[in-house]
Structures are given as C-alpha cells and as structure tokens.
Amino acid sequence: MSLNSLSNQCCKTAFQAVRADHLECLAAMSKSDLSSRETSGQTPLHIAAKLNRLKIVDFLLKHVPETQNVISLYGENAILTAAAEGHFGVVRTLLSDGSLKTATMRAMHRDINGTSVLMLAVAYEDNDTAFWLLKRFGKALAMLPNKCLMLPLHVAAAQGNIEFIRVVTKYDSHMANFRDEFGCTACVYAIQCGSLLCLRYLVEKCRANLASVSDRGQSLLHVACLAGYPHIVQWILQRSVPNIIFWTTSHNANAIHFAAFSGCVGALRIMLKGIDKKRRKTVLALRDLRSNTPLHLTAINNHIEAAQYLV
C-alpha cells in the first residue's frame, strides 16, 4: 500500500505532522499543505530540518523541492535552520539535492546576521562538515563574512581550531590579515583563547601581520596582556620591535597598563625585566587617558599580587 492511499490522517497541518514525526500524515496531504508557511515564514521543511527529521526531509525534497529556496523571517533557508541546531547530516542531504550551481547558491546564503553554513559548522567544531563544505564550495564560501565582518577563520581562531585554520588558509593565506568591524585579525582571537599554536601558524605560515593594531589602537601585545597569557607575551616580544611595550591605545594605555589591569604578574615580570631600574620608575608613572598608572589599575581591580609586584 502506498503512503498516499492512507486515510487515517491524525494531523491537521503539515507542521503538526512534522513535529509529531508522522510521515504517513504528510503523505496524505496536498502539495499546497506541504508548501505552507507559518507566521515566521518557515515551511515544513524548515521545521523538519530543525528537528532533525531526516526521513521527512527526504520526503519533502522529493515532493516539494522548491521549498529549499524559501527564506524565513530570520533570513534562514532550511540549510541554515539545520546548521543552527547542529544537524549537519540534514545539511549534507539538503546540499546534495539538485545541481552544483543550485547547491552553491543555497550554501552561499546567509541569515539576518550574515552567518553562513560554514561558519556554523566551525562554531560547532564539526571539522568533517566544514572540510566537506570547503571541498565542495571552495574559497567563495571561506571568504564569506558575517555582519561583523568576521570570517570562519576568526571563529576557528577563537576556538583554537588549528586543523581548520591549516586547511582554510590554503584557499587564500591573505585571509589571515582580514580585519573584522573592530579592526581585529584572526590573531587577536587566537590570543584571546590562549592558543600560541594558532598564533604561530597564522604569523609564520600565513604571514599575518604581528604589528597589526585594532581600531582602538590595541596591539597583539595589548591583547595578550589583557587575556593574561605570559607565554604569548614572551613570544610576541621576542619577534617585535623593542618599543612595542610602549605603544598606546586610543585611551593612551600601553601594554603594562593592560597587564596591570588584568593582574597578570607573569606578563608584568616579562616586560619590566628588560627595563633598567632607573627607567622603570618613570615607566610605571605613565598615565592613561583617565590618569591611571599601572598601580592604580591593579588597585581598581583588587589585584593584590600584581600591586605588590609593582610596589
């Protein structure tokens, strides 16, 4: 007996059938029902993708394949809806339907925040899917930024995902110097997550600019001091110009101010050991835009150990 001949339909709408996982009810519905939309603009295919109903997804692709192109009020096609929930088996099924040209158009679609399917795969640390997407859709997808101008590379760096970084930068190593809306390269995110391995790869293999500064004037040394990673501070100092410690941000704060603010004694020790005692007093008297010295900043944040070291 075919599915279409069943008459014991218990679900009134296609959405009810999808949520109840009743494929037999869907089979008894018209094409119009299967293509209907909720107030959010989502179709039954969106809901099936969101709930990881793979059999229903296959059924809907066979009977109403055009619903793949429907965009919800959130700017999502069914692919992005599935990816947002981490259902990458559904993503692969959806992107394997139709011609490569059509699949590419769907894969390149972004939601209202500019998030792509590749960025979601990276966010979920699903490298298998991310590499599958890269192999299928290439550089164009890899270079697709979100509304904050972040690339998938930025997200991978923030997670310390060296495997993805090694693969994606082969498509275009220049992306290592791509700046987001805050003026931050992937190096900033690698430092924030404490991954010296990722930072070294970006600088040594991809030629990321170690002297880059953000729109607020923060150098990579500033970021390392604020994040509290002495080993990264040491590595940056060994490869930078001697006066990088005294580079100031738009708030007139140098790296010593940042290390004091975060209470990172290790970073303070590394930076101050290269300054003779006579000059050190002058350096520690330098004030930021709010007239705070490094000692003021340790006191403000109650970093007792750092304050004791500076005194």
Automatic annotation (TrEMBL):
Q: Where are the ANK repeats?
A: 40-63, 290-311
- Known PROSITE patterns for this protein? ANK_REP_REGION, ANK_REPEAT
The record's GO CC annotations read: cytoplasm
Swiss-Prot/TrEMBL keywords: ANK repeat, Repeat
Which superkingdom heads the taxonomic lineage of this protein's source? Eukaryota
> Gene3D superfamilies per the record?
Ankyrin repeat-containing domain
Q: What is this protein called?
A: ANK_REP_REGION domain-containing protein
Q: Which organism is it from?
A: Syphacia muris
Q: What is the lineage of its organism?
A: Eukaryota, Metazoa, Ecdysozoa, Nematoda, Chromadorea
